[in-house]
Amino acid sequence: MSTRTDDLDRADDLRAEIDRTGYYPEVVADCVASAVAGEKVSSFFLHHEPTFDRDEVRRHLSVLVLTPTRLILAHTDEHAGDDLLPEPYTSTSTEAVRIDSVNSVVVTRMITNPTKGSSKPAEVVMTIGWGGVNRVDLEPAGCSDPNCDADHGYTGVLTPDDFSLRVSAAADGHDSVARLLSFAESLSARTHNR
Questions:
Q1: What angle do CA 37, 40, 44 make, to 5 degrees?
Q2: What are the C-alpha distances in Å from 189 to residues 4, 5, 146?
Q3: Is residue 94 a contact partner of residue 31, using CB atoms and an 8 Å limit?
Q4: Residues 19 and 30: beta-carbon distance below 8 Å
Q5: What value does the CA radius of gyration of the chain take, rounded to a whole number of Å?
Q6: What digits encode the pLDDT tens for the residues 128-148?
Q7: 3-state secondary structure at position 117
Q8: What is the per-residue pLDDT for 65?
Q9: How far is CA 55 from CA 13, 49, 51, 52, 59, in A?
Q10: CA 40: distance to chain centroid?
Q11: Residue 77, number of CB atoms within 10 A of its CB
């Protein structure tokens, strides 16, 4: 007998994973719990990404949480002190998106040596769109007359691009790639079942 993911509350697993990152776990857990607001945690994914700021390393943690009704995105960054806050500090932003607002889940898998048959993806990029942000790619429009010098305006593509996350086996490990694929599958299934 299989158990539906929605029937399980994975909040304890989420908290354990946040603790395992060691990246300000109390701060991150409090912000995520506040955004989840008591709903069950159906699925989640964490991505820890260090960035280089001159001669310092800054850390960034993304936490994606799927509840029965919402997709929660939380981002925590660390900052050096500044004029307003002289001591080092973190900033965490959370966004809660209704599941019925998610209109696309794009998953791109990069497979090395595809002629050797099926293998584990070396990289995965997941892009989620819900209409909050769109990317516009424009180029000059033209016609088939090579002597035409009229202005035909522009043509382009409008692509939803609210959130994008790239995970690679080389940087994050094969387990992280597999967990992102699992999260993407759970999210895709939820958008299918509405």
A1: 95
A2: 11, 11, 49
A3: yes
A4: no
A5: 21
A6: 988 766 667 778 888 888 888
A7: coil
A8: 98
A9: 35, 16, 11, 7, 13
A10: 20
A11: 15
Per cent of the chain over pLDDT 90 is 56
Find the DSSP H helices in the chain. Answer: 11-21, 25-36, 169-172, 174-192
AA identity, residue 184: A
- For the stretch 60-70, what's the b/e string if a residue is b when 16 or more beta carbons lie within 10 angstroms of its beta carbon? ebebbbbbeeb
d(CA 173, CA 194): 33
pLDDT of 107 over the 90 cut: yes
Q: In this model, does residue 45 exceed pLDDT 70? A: yes
Is the predicted pLDDT of residue 6 greater than 60, yes or no?
Answer: no
How far is CA 133 from each of CA 106, 156, 159, rounded to the nearest angstrom?
Answer: 15, 16, 9
Q: Are 124 and 112 in contact (CB under 8 A)?
A: no
Confidence of residue 70 (pLDDT cuts 50, 70, 90): very high
